[in-house]
Amino acid sequence: MLPEFKIAQLRHFVWVAELKGFHLAAEKAHRTQPAISLSIRDLENKLSEALFEKHNSRAAKTELTPFGQHFLPKAKELLAHHDRIAEDMTLLAEHKTGHLRLASVPSIACRFLPELLLNFIGSNDLHVSVFDDNSDAVLKMVENQQVDFGIASLFDEQRESEKHFTPVWEDRLGVVCPSDHPLASHSELHWQALREYRLISNGTSRLLEGSEAESLLAHSQYYISNMMSLVAMLEAGFGVTTLPWYAFPKDNTKLTFIPLHTPVITRRIGIIRLNNKSLTPPAQALVDFILASQD
C-alpha cells in the first residue's frame, strides 16, 4: 500500500534538511523540537526508511541519509505543486484570478459594464470574456452553459422556468428617429402617431406585445437585429423605430429619443442564471458586486 504523505510532515522534513537541524526547523514551524522529531519519525515510518543519519551527540550536524538525499527534491516538488494549487484556488475563491464569462445585451454592455468591470477587476489577474448579443442569444448561451451568467430581459418567465432572473435595471420604451424628423419635435408620443411613418422593428420590439400598440408589429415592414446596422439605417432616414432608453445610442447627435406616453411600456433587465447551478467564485462575486452597486 502506498504511503499517504501529510503536507506538514513534508514541510518539516525540508526545513530540517535545509536548516541543518531540528531546533531551527522547530522555530520556523512555530512548534516544539519534540513535535518536529515526532513528525519526521512518522514520515520515516511511512517510507520505511531513515531520512537523517543517527548521531550520538546532540551537537552533531544533521545529515541526510542517501535515501533522504534522494527524497529531498521529490518532497520539494510535491510541496511546490501543493502550494501552487493552494495559491490558485485561494485567488480563485477571492475572484483575483480565473476566467469569467458573461453575455449581455448591447445596451447594458455599452452603458454600464465598462465601469462595473473596471471597478470590480481592479488590479486582479482575472480574465473576462464578454459576449454582446440580443436577449434570445444571451438566454441560449446561459442555457448551453457557454457563459457563467447573462444580462438580458426575460420576456417569458414561465417558459424560461429553468432560469433564475434577478431584475437590476429598468428603462422606458420610446421612439427613435432622425433629429430632423417631424416626430422629433414632440416631447412624448401616442403609438398611433407612428402609423403614418415607415417603422423598423428590432429585437426589442416584442415589448409591444400584449399592449394596445401591438398592431405596430404587423405594421413594421422591416426588421433589423444588429444595433449598429439599425442606427445606420435610422441616421440615413430610412424610417423610425421603438427602443428602450438604455438601447438608445448615447451621445448620438443625429437621432432623437421620444418617450411613448400611450402606452407607457417599461423593460426590466437583470441577471439570468440557471437554477440549481452554483456560479464560480469570480462570477458570484461579480453578481454580488453588480447588485450592491445598485443600492
Instruction: Please state the second-level CATH architecture of the largest domain.
Output: 3-Layer(aba) Sandwich
Order of helices and strands: HHHHEHHEHEEEEHEHEEEH
Rg result: 32 Å
CATH topology-level name of the largest domain? D-Maltodextrin-Binding Protein, domain 2
Q: β content, as a range?
A: 15-25%
Question: Kindly state the mean pLDDT as a whole number?
Answer: 91
Name of the CATH superfamily of the largest domain = Periplasmic binding protein-like II
Gross geometry = rod-shaped
**Describe the biggest sheet?**
10 strands, mixed
Number of domains: 3
Please describe the topology of this protein.
Blueprint: H1 7-19, H2 22-29, H3 33-47, H4 66-93, E1 97-104, H5 106-111, H6 113-121, E2 125-132, H7 135-143, E3 149-152, E4 163-178, E5 189-190, E6 199-201, H8 215-219, E7 222-223, H9 227-235, E8 240-244, E9 255-262, E10 266-274, H10 281-293
Parallel strand pairs: 1-2, 1-3, 5-9, 6-7, 6-8
Antiparallel strand pairs: 3-10, 4-8, 4-9, 4-10
